[in-house]
Structure prediction request, 281 residues.
Amino acid sequence: MELQGKTAVITGGASGIGLATARQFARSGVNLVLGDIEEAPLKLAVEGLRADGANVIGVKTDVSVEQDVVAMRDAALQEFGAAHIIFNNAGVGVGPTIGTPKKVWDWVMAVNVDGVINGINAFVPMFLEQNEGHVINTGSLAGLGGVPGMGAYCASKFAVVGISECLFHEFALSGKNVGVSALCPGFVRTRINESYRNMPKELLDDYVTPSEQAAADMGANAVANGIEVAEVATAVEHAVRTNSFWILTHQRSAVRTTELRAAWMQGGPPPRINLEKATKS
Ligand SMILES: NC(=O)c1ccc[n+]([C@@H]2O[C@H](COP(=O)([O-])OP(=O)(O)OC[C@H]3O[C@@H](n4cnc5c(N)ncnc54)[C@H](O)[C@@H]3O)[C@@H](O)[C@H]2O)c1
Prediction:
């Protein structure tokens, strides 16, 4: 896709990978709609991008709420007349497999999976109709192999990768000029290990020592040692320009994870998980 003058809608656009991708797209002349649940960072993000000359609006959005995502799309259409890219990127990372209350699992699945489904339902029919568009769904290396301490997160990211692959095949069958990418990074320096900051209050009350738990959940050290967001943003833009499905910022780890799983399925030893190896490559 040629990007100049196109419109991209980015969920989780107020910080981390979403904001970095907004900056990257802005440099390529893309109009931007940022959707995020955090109002103050969203406002700051929009002001910062505008100061750099971007055409951008922010829409407070909870991606797990279908009407919010539809309203975000309608705001994009009203402001820019069309939308061409939906980056379903908002996500939260908490919840070991053992001991996570069901309602916390539900919250992780609602944001990470329902958020992607709501984005697909709101934008894909329009993309097919206009015969132009690109969907990017944020999965993770945790969507390619199981990781201890990340049961809820892995479940949601496996779902995102599966949905993205199905969408790829459906687009191929449609013969339309519409693409999809699955972004599956290893660790990236963002606030993902502070995801509990967006957890509904009634869940936080039940969640013992949330800061410690969340830090453990997402491997705070590994996140701190991860790659820079700008590197992810460059890879996202490249995938949209070249219509590439896999966005593997840590390709060596992604391929190794997949090879080890395949060997395990064929009677080999189970993989041994070393989070530090998923930081840089
Ligand atoms: N940082 C990593 O190491 C890493 C690795 C693999 C995948 N990811 C994925 O990247 C995506 C972006 O996360 P990040 O690393 O930039 O973290 P981040 O916490 O910096 O950004 C996530 C953004 O999503 C927003 N958000 C949370 N819940 C929301 C909701 N219900 N509705 C709308 N917005 C919501 C947050 O306010 C925040 O702005 C997530 O899907 C995450 O799972 C991150």
User: Anything to note?
Assistant: The first strand starts at residue 7 and ends at 11. The first helix runs from residue 16 to 27.
